[in-house]
Design brief:
The protein is an alpha+beta fold and about 375 residues long. Helices cover about 45% and strands about 15% of the residues. It has 13 helices and nine strands. The strands form three sheets. Strands 5-4-7-6 form a four-stranded antiparallel beta sheet. Helix 5 (about 90-110) packs across helix 13 (about 290-320) and helix 9 crosses helix 13 (about 290-320). It is elongated.
Length: about 375
């Protein structure tokens, strides 16, 4: 699959990657009626209405297609029919997001903000400058779901206006030192580097093999060379080097042994589901927290963003914007399971135009390297 230039990939997911997204994800839209927002033909229903502004299903789906193509590109995944099926469940969430974008764009225009044409030209020049040799800009636009260059320019302009409006909201937030210190204390973990060790290991199939290696090491054998010659783990070519890691990044038995081991002293054998480990810790650092004075500017930026997001939610709520998720096509039922944590009910499930959101998360760890 052709990789989009970085600058273009950022634009392919229009507006979703903006800092405002976290706040907009929880912004609520309202819906008064579902009976008067369809055009005469009834074939392209209105799915968002803001005053006399509307967005039809076809326009919405075109934007959603650009968004999911960008998501796939960012993950290095080809846009297959199966992936499209899986991502279709996010349409109700994106409908809320799109309604919020329309509200912010409307607010920006009412505030007299105008598109920074120099910014648009600069971004477009960077995109065009990154078109691979032998390719045309339209080749990338086709792959990304854009109809043409004009549509790309329009979305760059929209993004610029929303950024300007969000910056205006953030600049208007007044924060005191007491508020900043309170936020810092409440989010201290964000500024804390957890306890870590840097270690190497030699993974053997049997305890006897591990003890034999430890005997060789005690006799002066080089740890890295022993790992290269005898370890069954994938880190063997690197002399068993695992880099640095926190307590929850490895399986329990391995982690316990590594964090208790004296620096520079070989410990083991340690049994895990992967085999028997001989471990050498080269560095052990305790958890450290950056002092308030060092992160004050970052704290202020985050606090301003939170307050701006709250203003956005209030703005969306008072705008009267209406969304009609019941007019979205029901997502196709994928042959496999939907992405973990999608959290969105299929469109049409409410019948009252309500919206729904979701979240995802998860992690895994191991020490079979």
């Amino acid at each position: 699959m052709t990789r989009f230039p970085t600058r273009l990939r950022r634009l392919l997911l229009p507006l979703l990657a903006l800092a405002v997204a976290a706040g907009l994800a929880s912004a609520q839209t309202t819906n008064q009626s579902t009976s008067q927002s369809t055009d005469a033909s009834g074939k392209d229903p209105v799915v968002i209405q803001l005053g006399d502004q509307t967005e039809t299903l076809s326009d919405f789906e075109a934007r959603f297609d650009i968004a999911i193509r960008s998501l796939a590109a960012q993950q290095g995944m080809p846009m297959t029919p199966k992936l499209r099926q899986q991502l279709a469940v996010y349409q109700p969430q994106y409908l809320k997001q799109r309604a919020s974008e329309m509200v912010l764009l409307d607010k920006a225009k009412k505030n007299g903000l105008t598109i920074d044409q120099k910014h648009v030209d600069s971004v477009l020049a960077q995109v065009q400058g990154n078109v691979p040799k032998g390719k045309k800009l339209q080749d990338l636009l086709d792959q990304a779901g854009f109809k043409d260059k004009a549509q790309l320019v329009k979305l760059i302009g929209e993004s610029d206006l929303i950024n300007q409006e969000m910056q205006k909201l953030k600049d208007g937030v007044k924060v005191t030192d007491a508020q900043l210190k309170g936020y810092y204390q409440a989010h201290k973990s964000d500024y804390t580097t957890p306890e870590q060790v840097c270690a190497s290991h030699i993974l053997l199939k049997t305890e006897a093999d591990a003890k034999a290696v430890m005997k060789d090491l005690a006799g002066g054998a080089d740890f890295a060379q022993e790992a290269k010659d005898k370890s069954t783990g994938p880190s063997a070519p690197k002399g068993g080097d695992l880099g640095c890691f926190g307590k929850n990044q490895m399986v329990q038995a391995f982690s316990d042994a590594a964090f208790k081991a004296p620096v520079g002293k070989v410990v083991g054998p340690v049994k895990t589901q992967y085999g028997y480990h001989v471990i050498l810790v080269s560095k052990h650092t305790q958890a450290t927290t950056k002092p308030f004075d060092k992160v004050k500017s970052d704290v202020e930026s985050k606090l301003r963003q939170e307050h701006a997001n709250q203003q956005v939610q209030a703005l969306v709520k008072s705008s009267g914007v209406q969304t009609f998720p019941d007019r979205l096509p029901a997502p196709p039922q994928p042959s496999g399971s939907a992405p973990s944590g999608s959290g969105s009910a299929p469109a049409g499930g409410t019948g009252s135009g309500g919206t729904s959101g979701g979240s995802s998360g998860g992690s895994s760890s191991g020490s079979g390297n």
